[in-house]
What we know:
By secondary structure, this protein is mostly helical. It has helices at 14-59, 82-89, 93-97, 101-119, 131-135, 162-193, 196-208, 214-233, 241-265, 269-277, 282-293, 295-311, 314-319, 337-344, 353-391; strands at 150-151, 158-159. The protein has a two-stranded antiparallel sheet with strand order 1-2. Mean pLDDT is 81; it is low at 65-69, 118-125 and 388-392.
Amino acid sequence: MKPDAQTTSPRFSPSEARRRRAQWLEVWSARAIAGVAAAVGVATVSVFVFIAVEAGPALSGRIDSESGVARVSPDDIDRVPAETLRSFLGLSPSEFASKTREQLRLLVEVRSETLAEERGGTGRASDPTGWRHLLLPHAGNGQGEPTHLWQPSAASPRFNLIPLWWGTLKVTAIALLVAMPLAITAALHVSQVAAPHRRAWLKPMIESMAGVPAVVMGFLAVAVLAPAVQRILGLPFLFNGFVAGVAVGLAIVPVIFSVAEDALSAVPRDWVRAALALGATPWEAVSRVVLPAAAPGVGAAVLLGLAQALGETMIVMMVSGNAATLSWSLWEPVRTVPVTLALELGETARGGPHYRVLFLLGSLLLALSVVLQGLVRWIRRRYVGRGAEWRS
Length: 392
């Protein structure tokens, strides 16, 4: 009798099975990481595209405040659709829902009178969002002295960007003047002076300050820094641009310190020893050897701190006073671009002039941040290459 043919499946040894499972996990992990990276890239591009589309009408230099919005008279408020009435008044959905019929009638009358004044004798409505009005002084209906003014909620809105950018640059400049000496001095001490056992705990302690929430830093500035500065200097305003700049400067110290310390530590110690052997003092060795060699990394650290200071929102919102003023004084309240976006974007009517101008501000801030980040990456990439040459 012929024996039955035995069909047996191949068996693997335990080590071979573990190896195959590891290979399978490695392949699928790589695919998952690639998928997540692609999704993040698509999301980032989508954000840029969305901002560009929303800011497009403002970037073109003109937004017709009456385009797509029907004219409504006070006698028509019961006959026009609610959405048309809301668009004509430029109210957000929550604001429109909170108004009574009489309040809406009064708002329609005011809006109609404002449009008639804006038309004047030209036969066309003036555009408060043209580049001339966004950047140059404007009187508003031709009355009074031309000034730079951010007043989006007035009957005749004015969207001049100069006070907001002036406040942003003022706070950022003060922050850098405060943060750069502290951060670079601390980086020099940790990298060149401190003993190894002190460096082991001093560097992580300073870098851990970057994890402190911005709202906590803002609360400390409100409760401690602002009253102390006002008491010492005798300032008329508790919250002002100087206090905001100092608070932001303290917040960005860990960022500048971390990158600058890495750059300073990358300079070969043999260079310092050679300088000392030639008769240089320790300060001369640091100032004439270490700092010039680490200059690209220190510059990248400063640019990184600059980018963070430009985008800081919560701390500035809490201690700046939030007044869009155009003054050289450090002791007056200021308002920055990020704070304006945070406070006003949620309460504007979608597609209106105020909404488009806010997206214009956001697109300009985003472009500036991208330029700074790209410059930092270029400097660090070049610096890393030089560091590799030093170590070789």
